[in-house]
Amino acid sequence: MAHLSGAEYLASIYGTEKDKVNCSFYFKIGACRHGDKCSRTHIMPTFSQTVLLKNLYHNPVIDMRQADAFSKVGQNNKEEQDYFDDFFEEIFAELNEKYGQVEEMNVCDNIGEHMIGNVYVKFAREDDAERCVKALENRWFNGEPIYAELSPVTDFREACCRQYELGGCGKGAFCNFMHLKPISRELRKKLYGDRRSPDRRRDRRGYGGGGYGGGGGGKYRPSFRFSFRLFCDLLGCF
């Protein structure tokens, strides 16, 4: 292995468990349960293909404040699925039309405060993602302000809970790895057409691995190209 300079080494470990300064969990998931109280730094990217719309989706099961609501999360019935599909299509269609091609859109089914209702939109181009964030400033949805920011998440395979994808997660909806809410097969075909669309619940290739927080995800090593570019951007190397 070629010897790495100091800057190259720091870039190579950026966002991994070896990084003692920056929060690897925020880098991988785009959200951290410790928030501003985290002992490690959360660095919001200055460029990314992915936009995070915080807490945008309101799960009607949770909103009804039922005594057994938490146990019902993830147990879709037709009424709830239709409600979610309508929401998903509305957001996807508007962003895809106004700001550029949406490669992938995912909605968290988790109920932890830092993840509940989070919507991740990955655009084909970084410029489109940046334009989207700026355009959504001071915008409202369903009577509430939209909170949009660029997210470090670009590979959702590493952010998702493997146990959940395989059929069951011991932490349930409070897991700190993404439990992605699936859209219907009909809507997937309508939105993505012939493009290969993501379907996390059917992916059985085992991306992630067990580990952090018991949820899944495992050890993550961001690409050297991406981490070095981000590190140098932060330091003003270029």
Task: Quickly list its features.
two-stranded antiparallel sheet, globular, 238 residues, disordered C terminus, 10 helices, 6 strands
In short:
The chain contains 10 helices and 6 strands. It is an alpha+beta fold.
Structural account:
Residues 6-16, 65-70 and 200-238 have low confidence and may be disordered. This protein is an alpha+beta fold. It is globular, with a radius of gyration of 18 Å. Strands 2-3-1-6 form a four-stranded antiparallel sheet, with helices on one face. It starts with 5 loop residues before the first helix and ends with a helix. The protein has a domain at 46-192: Alpha-Beta Plaits (2-Layer Sandwich), CATH 3.30.70.330. Helix 1 packs across helix 10 (224-235). The protein is built from ten helices and six strands; from the N terminus they run H-H-E-H-H-H-E-E-H-E-E-E-H-H-H-H. Residues 49-153 form the RRM domain. Residues 17-45, 155-182 form the C3H1-type domain. InterPro entries: Nucleotide-bd_a/b_plait_sf, RBD_domain_sf, RRM_dom, RRM_euk-type, U2AF_small, Znf_CCCH. GO terms for molecular function: DNA binding; RNA binding; zinc ion binding.
